[in-house]
Design brief:
0% strand, mainly alpha
Length: 169
């Protein structure tokens, strides 16, 4: 017997055992294996179909999300513009109100200052008049000690009053 070429009896039994094994596998093993392969194939096909559907949904969701983000940005921009405009309007209104209030305060202050000035002038005139009368009284007492000086002073005053009334007319 040679190691490379088998004997015919051995070859016969090998063919019979192979045929028997093939028959048993064909009868019992292959149907189970093919059904499992078919089940696996259908499960993989279903998974691929589901994956494609999920991918389509995800792309739709991504697109929707992009639209929502863009809308949110536009809305944010609009809100910011409104806020800036409202701020400007409030600042401008506050400036106008402040100017009006300042003008009102200045006008009130001017009125008060004018009133106080008038009051002060009246007080000064009153004081000057009182001082003048007091000084005049002292002078007159001294100068009018004689009757002649008194008559002369009265006629002088009448002449001055006449001149003053002529100037006023």
């Amino acid at each position: 017997m040679s190691l490379v070429t088998p004997d015919s009896g051995l070859l016969f039994w090998m063919v019979i055992i192979f045929g028997l094994l093939f028959f048993l596998l064909a009868k019992f093993g292959f149907p189970i294996i093919t059904s499992m392969v078919e089940k696996r194939d259908s499960a993989i096909g279903k998974s691929l179909k589901d994956a494609k559907e999920v991918e389509a949904r995800m792309s739709a969701l991504v697109e929707e999300h992009s639209k929502m983000v863009e809308e949110a940005r536009k809305e944010q921009s609009a809100i910011m513009k409104e806020a800036i405009e409202a701020k400007k309007a409030l600042v401008e209104q506050a400036k106008v109100e402040a100017r009006e209030e300042a003008d009102k305060i200045l006008a009130d202050a001017r009125i008060r200052i004018a009133a106080e000035k008038e009051s002060a002038l009246r007080d000064v005139r009153r004081e000057v008049a009182l001082l003048s009368v007091s000084i005049a009284e002292k002078i007159l007492r001294k100068d009018l000690s004689s009757e002649e000086a008194g008559a002369e002073f009265i006629s002088k005053m009448i002449d001055e009053a006449a001149k003053t009334s002529d100037k006023l007319s």
